[in-house]
Every structure is written in C-alpha cells, then in structure tokens.
Amino acid sequence: MKQIWLWIMFSFLSMLPNTVSAAHGGETADPCPQCGGDSVELHDTTFEAGCQCECTATTSITLVNNVNVKEGARLTFRIVPDGRPVYVSIVLHYEESFVQSKPYFFQQRNKLLDLAQYLYEEGIPLNLGPDWAFMEAIETFEDDDMRETTGGKNILRYITEDLGHKVDPHAHEHIYNYADVAYMIKDLGVEPSRIASGLIVDPPQDSKYDYLCSPIDGNFYDYTWQAQWLWGDATANHVNDTTASGIWRPKDQLHFYENDDGAPLPCIGKYINDIDGVYDLIEKIATDEVEQGHMYTAAIFIPQGRVTEALEELQTNMTALKQYEASGQLRFVSLQGAAEIWQDVYSGEGYVYIP
C-alpha cells in the first residue's frame, strides 16, 4: 500500500526551502485550513501556532507557493488510498455528576493534563465533551497555582490553544441545556464546537434528534447554539447501544440509522466505542467483511472515572496502533477532522455500517 508521511515541525522547516516558511508568535490556534480530496494543491495557506493539522489525499499533495507554518504548529501530510483506513477519534466526557470539590477537581484536572499531553506528544487529537459541572468546577476551584502548570491559562484554554485539542458541548439537560453548556465553554475563553457530543436516539420516542435539528436557546443564559454535527448516538444509560460506523444523515427519529441525503444533521459513528472495536473494524476491512470504498469510523471513549486507566490502556496499545497507522489501516482524527475528510475525500457520501 502506498502511504507517505511527512511531519513538519518548526525545527525542520529549513528542509523545505521556497516551499514552507515560518513566522514567530504565540497566536491562538485557528481551525486548520481545508486540505483534503483526491489531488491537493496548497497555496496561500497558513497553519497557525498551536494547530495540529492533517492534510489527506488519495492521489497526491503538492505545495505550490506561499505555504506558511507558524512556530508551534504541527502538520502531517498523508496519501491514503480511498476506503482503506479506520478513522479513530478519542472522546472524553465529563458528566453532570462531576464532584464539586477542590481536591476532586485538582485530581481530575491533573489526570486530564496527563492524557492531553500524552496524546499531543503522540500527534493524536482529543475531543473533550464536558457537561456544565466541569466548567463550574473550573470557575470555582481553579486557582493561580493550578494555572502555573498550564501557562497561566485555564485548563480548557490550555488544551485547545497549546495542545490543539477540541471541546464539544455535552449536555444531559437535567439542569442546563446544550446552549447553556456551550455558553459556559465560551465564557472560559474557548469557542464551543458545533458538535453535539452525545444524544439519546433509542427508543425513538425519547430521541433528541429532532430537538437538535433546530437552534437551541439557553435556559439560563442569553445564548443560542445550533448543532451542525452529531456524535455519540446512544440509549439511556448505554444499554444495548447500536454499534454504527461511518458518517450518515439520519432520516428521522424513527429511522435514525437510515441515511437520507436531504436530512439536516450528519452523525459520526462511534462503532463499539473502545480499542477492541478499532481492532475489530480494521480486521473486517482487511478481510473484506465490509464494503470497500466507504468511510469507516470508530471511537475510543473515555468516561470521567477512567482517565488514568484509559491512558494506561492507550500506552499499552500504542505500538500496535501506530503500526496500523503506518500501514494506512488507521487514522487518528478529531471529530472535526473526520467531518472534513468525509466532505473532502468521500464527497459527503452518507454511509452507515452496522454489523
């Protein structure tokens, strides 16, 4: 299989004269420039400080002119044959049950920092989905001593601005709704994504799908938020969740796992939601147990009470996962990155795989 990896770090920019240049500065990370498709040509493009960006094509990538990589940016170019890899996202949720005490917050903050730093060093993005209680704990308990470990920034700003990770609203809505949670993220200096990170879809009468298709006004804050993507389709208490892979546009609440190209909100499938599920899907693609040519997604989900255990599991499996990545059978992507690849490489073709 043909695959080309090219990591560009600031210290190596001199290797690419007249093609890539760098500018110093401590700017806040911006979203990655659009970069994907069959044959990609990059010109007049800037990769901002702090970003972790990937450019993927199925045939070729050409750097034409005026491509700027600022200090602190991390950039990967890949040639990956269409339909081959499993696109894997790592998602961590903090729930409404997050304990409101300073010792607990301090402990959990350190665990998050360890995980976020490890993934950054491995070049792997993290999607953090916090419910309201985590933001409230930051506002209440995070002090100057804690922020010394994160460059004087609150933990959300640090993991997004310095490590390039993502923050997506996650709301059970027993008290605060999705718009309230998005506002609380924004109030801490981080722009909330438009990904609804977690929703009940089964049984259909309890589904949040129709609700999330419309703009949501805050219950407690004068703020409106609109989902553009869905992730984390589930049942109440995660009993018999459907193991769906791919990205598709659910037809409606009664037919959530049927694709309808005219439906408004795409859903990114999580599959089995753990490392074993990643291995399972890689094997099925390799042995032609699934149709080729489609986009297959999987997630490694981390509950708030298992951050340390999840980090240890990732460390134990990283050699094997990196081998699959090097062979083109796996791609670590943020949920945002998966959405962009679906649009740019797979032309937004709705497809859902359920074993």
Describe the structure.
It is a single chain. By secondary structure, this protein is of the alpha/beta class. The chain is built from 9 helices and 17 strands. The strands form 4 sheets. Strands 1, 2, 3, 4 and 5 form a 5-stranded mixed β-sheet that branches. Strands 6, 7, 8, 15 and 16 form a 5-stranded parallel β-sheet that branches. The chain has a 5-stranded mixed β-sheet with strand order 9-12-14-13-17, with helices on one face. The two termini are 26 Å apart. The relative contact order is 0.15.
Instruction: Show unreliable segments.
Output: 1-30
Q: What share of residues is helical?
A: 25-40%
User: So how many helices?
Assistant: 9
Approximate strand percentage: 25-35%
* Overall number of strands: 17
Distance between the termini: 26 Å
In angstroms, what is the radius of gyration? 20 Å
The general outline is globular
Output mean pLDDT.
Answer: 88
Instruction: List SSEs in N-to-C order.
Output: EEEEEEHEHHHEHEHEEEEEHEHEHE
Structural class: alpha/beta
Major beta-sheet overview: 5 strands, mixed
Assembly level: single chain
